[in-house]
Amino acid sequence: MRLLVVEDEKRIADFLSRGLQSAGYAVDVVHTGEDAVERVHSTEYDLVILDLGLPDIDGLQVLQKIKNRKTIPPVLILSARDSVDDRVKGLEQGADDYLVKPFAFVELLARVRVLLRRGQPTPERLQVGDLSLDCIRRRVTRSNEVIELAPKEFSILEYMMRNRGRPLSRTMIVEHVWDMDYDGLTNIVDVYIRHLRSKIDDKFQIKMIRTVRGIGYMLDAPDVAAEASREPMLA
Ligand code: CA
Q1: 53 CA distance to ligand 1 centroid (A)?
Q2: Which of 11, 60, 74, 101 is the most exposed place for a label (fewest CB within 10 A)?
Q3: Residues with CB under 5 A from ligand 1 (ion)
Q4: pTM as predicted
């Protein structure tokens, strides 16, 4: 997920970019409206966080230019102007949400997550190798065998399958699966991964859940063809 932060106040820009990065997002920062427009036209962003009070072009004008594009990222407006007028104008011009400064970072993060989820097509079924997860019926099978999972185990597995092949830190998993009020230790993730492994991997030759040293965990299935060629020939 790649985010663009448009904010001329350096202190706020740094605060946002650090916070969002530690939440697992890739973040670019620009300080002017001009740069924002240029960036949005040259890069595919999943979300734009746009301050309205910019030194060159007005944020609302930037918004207009963003919304002229063919593929439009969701836009979250930040505004110090607590005027209803600006907010209404922003939303009318196609902003997806707004926050009035000052705001708490958790509030921003919650909105960012909602907007990102909205933009994402959610497949009904996830498939990695012979592991299959039905998001609607909440059913998991491996090699056509049904695997019973507790709700949190299911959520972790779903998150890992959606991010197949991508190392996920314990923090990312906790933030994704537990709600924002959870302030316990991230090593609860290790406990759940142990359970998941015993259900998903133990019986099978190919292990999908891998430990990524120094980071956390990753789920992937090796390329079937590559795996077959490595397998010893059986008489
Ligand atoms: Ca500003």
Answers
A1: 4
A2: 11
A3: 8, 51, 53
A4: 0.54
Bigger pLDDT: 235 vs 178? 178
Q: And the tokens for 198?
A: 């015993």
Poorest-pLDDT segment among 52-66, 71-85, 120-134, 178-192: 178-192
Distance 9 CA to ligand 1 centre (A): 6
Q: How far is the CA of 32 from the centre of ligand 1 (A)?
A: 9
How far apart are the CA of 43 and the centre of ligand 1, in A? 23
**How far apart, in whole angstroms, are the C-alpha atoms of residue 61 and residue 33?**
8
Closest CA to 2 of 19, 15, 18, 21: 21
- What distance in angstroms lies between residue 101's CA and the mean position of ligand 1's atoms? 10
Tell me which residue has tokens 């939440």.
23
Strands (DSSP E) contained in the chain are 2-6, 26-30, 47-51, 75-79, 97-100, 125-128, 131-134, 139-142, 145-147, 168-169, 209-212, 216-219
